Amino acid sequence: MASRSLDDLAPPAKARAEAFLRATQDAGLDILIYCTYRSPEEQNALYAQGRTQPGRIVTNARGGDSWHNWRSAFDFVPLVAGKPAWNDAALYAKAGRLAESVGLEWAGRWTGKLRETAHCQYTGGLTLAQLKSGAKVA
Known about the structure:
This protein is an alpha+beta fold. It has four helices and five strands. Strands 1, 2, 3, 4 and 5 form a five-stranded antiparallel β-sheet that branches. The chain is globular and about 40 Å long.
């Protein structure tokens, strides 16, 4: 099962996730981070969804090709009265702007077929290819 612990993030990503939570709290938003580290096997299972398994497509990344696999990404949902507001575009946009203000990349700005409004990542300017070659996010 994927982690939701900030302790499972690489230190640079964890520091930005903590800053994100402080910024959202200061802005009056209640946020739940529900996924941090995800194993390559879990990523492959998500990738199969909507392709070879039932469900809708939720990712374009196979195992090893997600920043979650490298401990540098998290998924979040805004809460309203303690309940997830999965479809509240305005709350996601507000949270996304706050994520960007603390140095995170917010996938709600991605273009193409699959924007991920719940996803943030910290790449440290690296590519996945560089990570796979042994580089570390700083």
